[in-house]
Amino acid sequence: NWDTTLVHARVGEEFDQITFWHEEPHVLLGLNADGRLNQGRLDHTFAITEPTGLTSVPWVDMRVGCDAIPEGDSVLVRVEHHWAAPDEGPAAPYVEALSDSHFWVVDGTWEDGTPGAPHLDARLTYVGNDENDLDHGLYGDTEEGGFLAWRPRAGAPWVQHPHYTWQAGSLANGSGVFKIAKLLKGQYTFAKGDVSVGLDEPDLLAQDMDLNVWPNPASDMFDVQVYLPGFTPDRIARMVAFDAAGRQVWHSSAWTDRIAVGTWAPGLHTLVVEGSDGQTWTSSVVVTGPSR
C-alpha cells in the first residue's frame, strides 16, 4: 500500500515559492495532481502490482501495460499529458520538427535500468488528418520521417526513443500508432526527421544501456556500472549530476566509474550520462552525507 499525502497551498503573482514538509523522504511528487486540464494538462497516477495487458490510462491518451514486475512488488506510475508544444532544444541532429501541440511526461517510483524495475510497455496514437486534430500541424500533410522522440528530463537532448516500433499504415492519412516496447521515465513527443543521420553508432542506438550506481544510498562515493555489450569509455561525451532542485553539482567531460560525493548536500541527485551520438541515460542516487 502506498501512503499518499495531499497538500493544498495558495500561490499568487507570476512567481512564488512554497516549502512542503514531509515526515519521510518522498518517492514521487505530483504538482496539481488530478487537475483535469489545469493549465493545459491532464494527468493520472496509478499503481501496478502485477503483470497486466495494455489498458487505457484515464485522461492522458496513453495505453500502458506491464510485462513483468518482481513478485510481491508494486510501483506507482504517473503520466501527464500536456496540451502545449514541448521546448525544442537541445536535440539530436536528426530532429527536424517536434509536435507543436502536445507532449507526455512519465514518472514513477522505480529506477530505469535497475534489477527491480518493472518492464512496462505502452501505446501512443497520433491523429492529424483533420485540421482540428492535435497532430495536424506535424503529420497533416505527410507522416514521412515520423518518429517518437524522448528525453529523460527537461533540458536533456531530444532523441529517438530506443525501444519502439511504428505502425503508420498509409503515410498520407495522418494517423498511426507508436508501440513502445519498454516505457522509460521521461518526456515523450511526436517528431519528424531523418533518423538515419543518427545511426553512425548502431551499437549505442539499437541497444539498451543499463546505467546503475552502487552503493545507493551513498555517503562518500559511488561506482557507476554500465551493462552494454561493446561499451567503451570513448563513446561518452560527458557526465553531469544535478540535485533535486536542478542545480548542477558535478560534471566530467570524460567517462569515470567512481564519483566522490563528500561535498554534495544530502538528498536525491540525478546522474546524466551523454553519449557522443546524442543519446542520454540517467540514474538516481540518494546522498546521505559523510559517513561517521
List keywords for this structure.
single chain; 292 residues; 2 domains; seven-stranded antiparallel sheet; five-stranded antiparallel sheet; 2 helices
Tell me about this structure.
- With 292 residues, the protein is mainly β.
- The chain contains two helices and 19 strands.
- The strands form four sheets. Strands 1, 4, 5, 6, 8, 9 and 12 form a seven-stranded antiparallel beta sheet that branches. Strands 2-3-7-11-10 form a five-stranded antiparallel beta sheet, with no helix packed on it.
- The protein starts with 40 loop residues before the first strand and ends in a 5-residue tail after the last strand.
- Residues 200-208 have low confidence and may be disordered.
Give a quick precis of the structure.
With 292 residues, this protein is mainly β. It is built from two helices and 19 strands.
Taken together, the total number of domains comes to 2
Instruction: Give the end-to-end Cα distance, rounded to a whole number of Å.
Output: 34 Å
| Shape by Cα distribution | globular
CATH class of the largest domain: Mainly Beta
Task: Return the structural class.
Answer: mainly beta
Provide the residue-averaged pLDDT: 84
Low-confidence stretches: 200-208
Strand content: 35-45%
**Which sheet architecture does the biggest sheet show?**
7 strands, antiparallel
The counted number of beta strands is 19
The CATH topology of the largest domain = Chondroitinase Ac, Chain A, domain 3
Helix content: under 10%
Rg to the nearest angstrom? 20 Å
Count of discrete alpha- or pi-helical segments spanning 4 or more residues? 2
Order of helices and strands: EEEEEEEHEEEEEHEEEEEEE
CATH architect. name of the largest domain:
Sandwich
